[in-house]
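Hi there. Long-time user, first ticket. I'm pasting a complex I've been working with (about 331 residues overall). I'd like to know whether the download I got is complete or cut off, because the file seemed smaller than I expected. Thanks.
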Amino acid sequence: MADTFQAVLISRDEDKKQSVEWTELSEDDLMEGDVTVAVEATTVNYKDGLAITGKAPVVRRFPLVPGIDFAGTVTKSSHTGWKEGDKVILNGWGVGETHYGAYAERARVNGDWLVPLPDGMSAKDAMAVGTAGYTAMLCVMALERHGITPERGPVVVTGAAGGVGSVAIALLAGQGHHVIASTGRASEADYLKELGAAEIIDREELSGPARPLGKERWAGGIDAVGSHTLANALSMTSYGGAVAACGLAQGMDLPASVAPFILRGVSLLGVDSVMAPKELRMEAWQRIAKELDHKKLGAIASVVPFSDVISAATDIIEGRVRGRVVVEMPG
Ligand code: NDP
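Hi, the file is complete. Here it is re-exported in full:
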């Protein structure tokens, strides 16, 4: 009999009602791909929470193993770029949405989707960063391309105590930016300061309907929240500034005015991690390895065993997770 391993499986019944269960799979059950990876660590991103709770239609194929990112070791490969023993990271490409994902001890994927684990980074470190942290780096890079240097003025980070927000604060503070952290959790003030936030504001300042133009408070920002929060972040961005938008924790809508764009030349920079080209991914991961303070990463991440992954997915949707959750695989 083939070796079996534990996996989380999302199914849907005839009434389209979604359910989540633990199951045993073998490698024969995995989907098509030219590289098989022993998953050593994965994580719980907001999107994983949406997939497991069914709160948004993230899963587009049933049944499906969820989990949008993992780090591990190649066990089999017919792809020219990878051989047995290589250490790899996977983020996105529809894994955990349309292709069997990380919440199993083995994954089989297209080798083109993988990036090498940077030297000196463990699988657990990589998943402490995870898709949320790698997206934070993509946002930092987008602001840089727009010329948002520390000299231009403060930068705001919304959803500050979450995964994207925490890593964004650590990266921006590390570059010398004056970071204004917007959070709904005043109790996390010390944590956010430890990551490098210079100022903390209550997210309620940004969560109501935005005026077309507000007082110019920051040169740029990273927004993981969307909706009114993004509209307010834009309306308070100073002349020529930019906000990198990657998330929708408050909502997918954008009830904003064009005033910041046409009267202040403000730019809205869209950031997607799922289909980002490989060169950008490689650059982001190499820069994370060099620039993200390891001590701060330790403060950001908590570790849970694989057996707790379903409850952690519910926690993230209910706003109970601080920073990042690393899921350690058995064995
Ligand atoms: P987290 O849940 O870790 O963080 C989200 C944070 O947003 C929360 O911690 C909270 O911050 C804040 N928040 C939650 N609900 C609300 C609300 N109703 N109003 C205002 N603020 C709220 O999620 P992640 O950091 O993993 O992801 C953040 C967002 O980025 C998600 O929407 C996710 O889907 C998106 N994302 C997008 C990617 C892309 O490719 N574009 C990749 C990765 C993530 P606080 O407690 O500090 O107020």
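A couple of notes from our side: The mean pLDDT is 96. The pocket of NDP is lined by residues 45-47, 131-132, 135, 159-165, 183-185, 203, 207, 224-225, 229, 246-250, 271-274, 316, 319, 321 (CB under 6 Å).
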